[in-house]
Specification:
mainly alpha, globular, single chain, about 65% helix
C-alpha cells in the first residue's frame, strides 16, 4: 500500500473517529498506532523511490529518530505511546513515555 492510501484509510480515519470521542482510550490508541505505522510506510516508500530523502536512515528506527530531530519533535510522543503498548516498557533513549500504564486517560 502506498503511504497516501495508508494515510487516507487508516491515519486520517482513526484520527477522525478518535476526535469525535476523544476520551475513548481504544480510539486514541488506534489513532496513535496508525500514526506511528505511517512512519514505516514512509520509510519503505522513500527507500524504494527517493532514498536521498532518508538522510542516511538505514532502518525505520533511524527514520523515526530523524523525523523527531528534524521534522516533528511531537512525533516522539506518538512513537513512545505506540511502542510502550507494544513492548510494555521502553528502555531506549530519548523517550517521553516509559511504561504503557502512563498512557491511560487518567494520566493525560
Amino acid at each position: 500500500m502506498e503511504p497516501q492510501s495508508f494515510y487516507e484509510k487508516h491515519v486520517k480515519e482513526n484520527c477522525k473517529i478518535w476526535i469525535a470521542d476523544h476520551t475513548n482510550e481504544v480510539k486514541a490508541m488506534n489513532a496513535v498506532s496508525a500514526a506511528n505505522n505511517m512512519a514505516e510506510y514512509m520509510y519503505d516508500y522513500l527507500k524504494k523511490y527517493k532514498p536521498e530523502l532518508l538522510c542516511g536512515a538505514a532502518q525505520p528506527f533511524d527514520y523515526r529518530k530523524n523525523l523527531v530531530k528534524t521534522e516533528c519533535a511531537d512525533f516522539q510522543i506518538i512513537w513512545d505511546v505506540a511502542d510502550s503498548h507494544k513492548h510494555i516498557r521502553l528502555r531506549r533513549l530519548p523517550r517521553q513515555v516509559t511504561c504503557s500504564d502512563q498512557t491511560n486517560s487518567e494520566s493525560l
